[in-house]
């Protein structure tokens, strides 16, 4: 009798607490799902759904006749993708896009890092200058496109006027094919505020004792920058490198506003300003070649994936993460 009594399990508060905690966890999980649901719906309806639809359209002859209902949508296989290989403007737009990206990304990173290093040393009015340098980043892209035409006008533009003060004859930036892409690169540097803020935060997070140790070892400022600053902020550099590269490959609004929008040269705009997404947009919403435009979109998607994957592979050698075992 004694052994039986001692072995009997008596329901206590612990079992009830477990049941309450289980119910609370389930309720908390459903609340979390409720908060996530709007994003999931938006992703499925506005991103995943259109991506699947565009993949389907890229394999069809979907165009103006199909949109108007005059002809049925027919499966054409890889015809749109073969057309990409034979379209001269596709090659031109890809060349322009890569040219712009290869020049603009290093320029934006270098200037943003330089400004961040200056701000990191400021004591007085640091907040004012941070705000002043960041404000251009929130300028609407359409305004930047219009500003491009105003600043770089070959006859009355501000840039050529300033160059004239020093006896330098400025080129026709917006009409000369050799200067159109450089002018776009220069204008892209206008929006480096966000990148600068990221670099400033990364610089503030570098431990001061590393600089002190380097100085004790006789390292000069350049050596400290190369051996301490760059490795410690390399994750921020890598992040912005990827983001800026993707943004460069998707350049659209500023170029379209300046050269292809209402009031611009329209169809007569120079090929030197034709970016890949601009040509994609025109094929889809001006010429209504939706199937061909969808194929262009998937080509750009694959290019971005390949470039990003290559960046990740290369980053293993150059990016240093604190806490990782070397």
What key phrases describe this protein's structure?
disordered N terminus; MetI-like fold; 16 helices; 72% helix; mainly alpha; 326 residues; 0% strand; single chain
Notes on the structure:
This protein has about 325 residues and is mainly α. It folds into two domains: about 10-55; about 85-320, Orthogonal Bundle (MetI-like fold), CATH 1.10.3720.10. It contains 16 helices and no strands. It has helices at about 1-5, 15-55, 65-70, 80-85, 90-120, 125-135, 140-150, 160-165, 175-190, 195-205, 210-215, 220-230, 235-250, 255-260, 275-285, 290-320. Helix 5 runs parallel beside helix 9 (about 175-190).
In short:
72% of the residues lie in helices and 0% in strands.
Map the helices and strands.
Elements: H1 2-7, H2 13-57, H3 64-68, H4 79-86, H5 88-121, H6 126-134, H7 141-151, H8 158-165, H9 177-188, H10 193-204, H11 208-216, H12 221-232, H13 234-249, H14 253-260, H15 276-285, H16 290-318
Helix pairs in contact: 2-16, 4-16, 5-9, 5-10, 5-13, 5-15, 7-14, 11-12, 13-16, 15-16
CATH level 4 superfamily of the largest domain: MetI-like
> How would you sum up the global shape?
globular
Low-pLDDT residue spans:
1-7
> How many domains would you count in the coordinates?
2
Number of helices: 16
The major sheet is characterized as:
none
Radius of gyration, CA atoms, in whole angstroms: 28 Å
Question: What share of residues are in beta strands?
Answer: under 5%
Helicity, as a percent range? over 70%
Average pLDDT value? 87
The ordered string of helix (H) and strand (E) elements is HHHHHHHHHHHHHHHH
CATH class category name of the largest domain: Mainly Alpha
Give the CA-CA distance, first to last residue: 64 Å
- The computed structural class is mainly alpha
The tally of beta strands, per DSSP, is 0
CATH architecture of the largest domain: Orthogonal Bundle
């Amino acid at each position: 009798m004694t052994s039986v009594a001692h072995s009997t399990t008596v329901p206590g508060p612990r079992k009830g607490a477990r049941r309450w905690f289980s119910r609370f966890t389930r309720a908390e999980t459903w609340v979390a799902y409720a908060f996530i649901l709007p994003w999931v719906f938006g992703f499925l309806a506005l991103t995943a759904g259109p991506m699947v639809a565009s993949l389907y359209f890229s394999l069809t002859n979907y165009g103006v006749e199909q949109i108007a209902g005059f002809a049925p949508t027919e499966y054409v296989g890889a015809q749109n993708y073969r057309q990409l290989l034979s379209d001269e403007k596709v090659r031109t737009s890809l060349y322009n896009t890569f040219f712009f990206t290869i020049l603009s990304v290093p320029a934006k990173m270098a200037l943003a890092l330089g400004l961040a290093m200056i701000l990191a040393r400021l004591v007085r009015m640091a907040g004012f200058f941070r705000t002043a340098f960041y404000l251009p980043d929130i300028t609407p892209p359409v305004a930047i496109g219009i500003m491009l035409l105003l600043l770089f006008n070959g006859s009355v533009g501000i840039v050529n006027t300033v160059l004239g003060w020093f006896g330098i004859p400025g080129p026709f930036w917006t009409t000369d094919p050799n200067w159109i892409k450089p002018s776009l690169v220069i204008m892209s540097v206008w929006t480096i505020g966000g990148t600068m803020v990221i670099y400033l935060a990364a610089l503030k997070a570098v431990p001061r004792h590393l600089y002190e140790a380097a100085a004790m070892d006789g390292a000069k400022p350049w050596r400290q920058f190369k051996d301490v600053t760059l490795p410690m902020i390399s994750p921020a550099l890598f992040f912005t490198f990827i983001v800026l590269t993707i943004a460069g490959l998707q350049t659209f609004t500023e170029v379209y506003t300046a050269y292809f929008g209402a009031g611009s040269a329209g169809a007569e705009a120079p090929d030197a300003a034709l970016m890949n997404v601009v040509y994609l947009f025109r094929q889809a919403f001006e010429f209504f070649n939706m199937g061909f435009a969808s194929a262009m979109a998937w080509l750009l998607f694959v290019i971005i994936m390949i470039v990003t994957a290559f960046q990740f592979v290369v980053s293993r050698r150059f990016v240093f993460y604190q806490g990782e075992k070397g």
